[in-house]
Amino acid sequence: MNSADHKSISLGERWRREATRSVDDARLAAALEALPSIRKPMVRIRPGSIRCEMEGAMGSIHEVSLQIRTLPMRDWSTLVRVLRRSKSIVEALENGRVPRSFDRLVARIVGEPLFPEARSVTFGCSCDLPEKPCRHVLALHELFARRLDEKPWELMMLRGVDLQALLARVRQTEPDSELPPLAYGVPEEPVLFPDAEDADLGQTLSSMQVRWFTGALADRCVEAALKALHGLSATTPPPPPPANAAPAAQQVTIAKSDEDPDNDEKPARKGKARKQSTAEAIESDVEKVRKSAKPG
To answer: How far is Cα 108 from Cα 155, in angstroms, rounded to an integer?
Structure first.
């Protein structure tokens, strides 16, 4: 399955899955039944917490809350610098979306992902039900999951990130001498973490790209490369000598042969070996690799 065929999971669905992990169907059904009893005007989403009031039996009111620590802000200046070179992520944030690539970027730079793990979310409820989390807490989780499908930016509010202030800093155009210019005039820095679900090579790369990365080349590719190398010139013609160089060299050779009467008795000097051409050197290396790759 490639990335185009892989359906993205919404923030709300991700929150729902994390919150209901290891929760049985009966408790989930009870939470859905309790969902309408949430007094929506009393729902308050603040940095680090979600609080609401729920109507209980006999006119009682339960106070329910979810708590999560806000993200550390010490490395956000670095995040802003990278976002200035990530056009697609910034456009998504300006449209109120929170792409998975931004979540992974935050995790890489800040050290903690924007989307929290279930174990990092604590809860509280004023009811006296024995099961933990109770149906009121699960109902609040479901309410927030539905809100994330409509207003994804509320996740950033919960983690203590001011989206508008972040975008305002990203839009500033002061020069950054520590970052090199983008190569080849591309509009943004390549995103290391693609906007996909649990992306791996099989989902984000085609089979041919995977073979290329693993070094699995077809035999016909090797043959085509060797054929192209054979088409290159075997030797590079030497540059023409100066006009007076050849006669002077001949005179020196003749003079040396006249001065040496025993020249005929000396063994003939071996000529220098012809320098191997680039094509021949590459072909020799390819042949060595082929032989070493053969079994036995």
So the answer is: 18
Strands (E), the chain: 44-46, 49-55, 61-67, 122-125
Which residues sit opposite 54 in a β-bridge?
Answer: 38, 62
Q: How far apart are CA 243 and CA 51, in angstroms?
A: 95
- Report helix, strand or coil for 291: helix
The two three-digit tokens of residue 134, written as one number = 């109770």
CB within 8 Å of 123: residues ≥ 6 apart = 64, 65, 66, 67, 133, 137, 140
Instruction: Give pLDDT tens digits for 12-66.
Output: 999 999 999 889 999 999 999 999 999 988 899 999 999 999 998 777 899 999 9
Query: Which ranges in 21-117 belong to alpha helices (H)?
Result: 25-34, 76-83, 87-94, 100-110
Q: What residues are paired with 52 via a beta bridge?
A: 64
Sorted by where each begins, the domain ranges of the chain are 11-208, 217-237+271-296
Distances (CA, A) of 119 to 6, 18, 136, 143: 27, 9, 18, 19
Residues 6+ apart with CB under 8 A from 186: none
Question: Which helix (DSSP H) or strand (DSSP E) does residue 77 occupy?
Answer: helix 76-83
